[in-house]
């Protein structure tokens, strides 16, 4: 893991905070973190300040007693007691599956946060349930609040991948097809793909036990499962496929018997499980062709997110 997070009391600001400890030295269970990754997280959080669906940066500290292997600390506002993975697991244990309106509310908040992150010129690259903090808000009725955290592998949108860190971007069950294929030319839609995976887990109710695209690597690699579920037409039609600096990917997919998958996403999410409007968002986020995949801003304009405002007009976040 890249660090430990502690709940603490800020005596100056008189508030609860979360302190992320990034170790500069290798330790049991920890990956040493250098100044580059510390700066990456702090800079991205600072750039993305001011949105209710993103944890708030409070302070940073670098241990100056060690020039090479000092420890680093990132302090953010306390966002809640549990991450989304643990919350999904809790709901499953309680026999309380997420209703569609709950999924919609969670996705509205997460996509709104992602939209802000991308507008500020940042790619998060690790939109997974473990990096979403969940809390309950009791203002004007009870409401679940979701905040994006975990900016440790984030990257500036301009010139992404220049530091060769794409291998760290998104664990396999949340990795967009273009990253699996080794593309170095990607944008915020790698994040919306990951959010599509999160949405699928919320709808199925299985996210507390395993990711939607979890797979037995020996029996079926994750990428093969991805293609089987969403189909291969989109990725084979993606112009960027021909620009990849590797052998003919289309031919490789045909050799592996993956090039003719029609996809079964709708079969997995029939209308009794997810409405037509909801499926339009899910399938748009899990579109294998990145050029046709929904951005966060476009997703939020879909009918699923529209609601009645004052005077009968419709508005979206």
From TrEMBL:
GO biological process, alphabetically ordered: regulation of mitotic cell cycle
Pfam families membership: Pkinase (PF00069)
Key words, A-Z: ATP-binding, Nucleotide-binding, Phosphoprotein
Domain of life: Eukaryota
GO cellular-component term (any): nucleus
Molecular function terms from GO: ATP binding; RNA polymerase II CTD heptapeptide repeat kinase activity
UniProt key word Phosphoprotein: yes
Swiss-Prot/TrEMBL catalytic activity: [DNA-directed RNA polymerase] + ATP = phospho-[DNA-directed RNA polymerase] + ADP + H(+)
EC number: 2.7.11.23
Residues of the Protein kinase domain: 1-305
PANTHER family: CELL DIVISION PROTEIN KINASE, OS12G0427000 PROTEIN
Name of this protein: [RNA-polymerase]-subunit kinase
Source organism of the structure: Digitaria exilis
């Amino acid at each position: 893991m890249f660090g430990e997070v502690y709940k603490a009391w800020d005596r100056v600001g008189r508030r609860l905070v979360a302190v992320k400890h990034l170790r500069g030295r290798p330790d049991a269970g920890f990956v040493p973190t250098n100044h580059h990754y510390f700066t990456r997280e702090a800079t991205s959080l600072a750039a993305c300040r001011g949105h209710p669906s993103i944890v708030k940066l409070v302070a940073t500290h670098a241990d100056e007693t060690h020039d090479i292997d000092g420890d680093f600390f990132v302090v953010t506002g306390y966002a809640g007691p549990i991450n989304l993975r643990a919350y999904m697991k809790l709901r499953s244990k309680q026999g309380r599956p997420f209703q569609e309106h709950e999924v919609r509310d969670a996705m509205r908040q997460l996509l709104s946060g992602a939209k802000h992150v991308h507008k500020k010129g940042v790619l998060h690259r690790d939109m997974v349930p473990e990096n979403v903090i969940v809390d309950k808000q009791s203002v004007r009725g009870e409401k679940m609040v979701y905040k994006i955290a975990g900016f440790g592998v984030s990257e500036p949108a301009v010139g992404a991948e220049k530091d060769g860190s794409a291998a760290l971007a998104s664990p396999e069950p949340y990795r967009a097809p273009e990253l699996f294929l080794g593309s170095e030319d990607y944008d915020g839609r790698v994040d919306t793909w990951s959010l599509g995976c999160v949405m699928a887990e919320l709808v199925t109710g299985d996210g507390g036990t395993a990711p939607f695209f979890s797979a037995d690597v020996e029996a079926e690699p994750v990428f093969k499962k991805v293609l089987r579920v969403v189909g291969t037409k989109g990725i084979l039609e993606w112009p960027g496929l021909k620009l990849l600096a590797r052998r003919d990917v289309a031919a490789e997919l045909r050799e592996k018997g993956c090039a003719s998958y029609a996809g079964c996403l709708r079969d997995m999410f029939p209308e009794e499980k997810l409405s037509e409007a909801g499926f339009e968002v899910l399938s748009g986020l899990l579109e294998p062709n990145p050029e046709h995949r929904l951005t966060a801003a476009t997703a939020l304009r879909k009918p699923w997110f529209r609601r009645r405002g004052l005077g009968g007009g419709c508005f979206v976040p």
